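Problem 12. The chain below contains 247 residues. Write out its predicted structure in token notation.
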Amino acid sequence: MAKKSLVKKAPKQTSTSTPASVVAFDAKDLARKAVLEQAEKQHHVGGFVSVEFDDDNRVATYLFESNLPGYKGWRWCVTVAKVDEESLPTICDVVALPGPDALLAPDWIPYRDRIQPGDVGVGDIVPSSLDDTRLVPGQSALPQDEDLDTALAVELGFGRARVMSIEGRDQAAKRWYDGDRGPQAPLAQSAPKPCHSCGFFIPIAGSLRSTFGVCANAISPEDARVVSVDHGCGAHSEATFNEPVIN
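Solution.
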């Protein structure tokens, strides 16, 4: 009897659907019901958008418009699977995904990269980063095979935990030179002479000495600010004029 039973069941087993024979199924109503359960409020679910099947027609992805507050242009995405033609469709996942015109939050930017000039006020503390590439250990700035006098050692960074790296100095130099106190600023373009020839120009120390200095003219708009040697303003020390000749 057991052998006869096996013979009868064999044709049924061989007729089981293969991946290529599974026909695309319709589970839109099932998918929409799953979305309604997930959304909790019916008006958060909009109209049907589209459905896509995988190559074997076993997995379908249904899209519905999303009316969730704050999620303009998003869509409900429902994944439905059907193992074979005899089985019923099954919900695999329900999620909200952005559509092609969706309103998205901006990319997250680390706190230290969001700080802008003027953001630090009285009493504010900006945490220092140990991996800041603009800084290097202070001892690395000191020559190891030379005897330094105190003034030069202090200038190079002796006594400070960290000093500016070459990268940090390059960034600062470019920022200053391309900014409002460089040669391309409108104030400099209309100046009678450049800063390096002004009596109020004080060169700074260190590797940036040849390019920058500090303005010490009380009536200059750049007083107490770092300026490039080819910057300038109307308060140049040699901006003299001739007295009119009275006949």
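Discussion. The chain has a mean pLDDT of 83. Students who got a different answer should revisit the alignment rule from Section 12.3.
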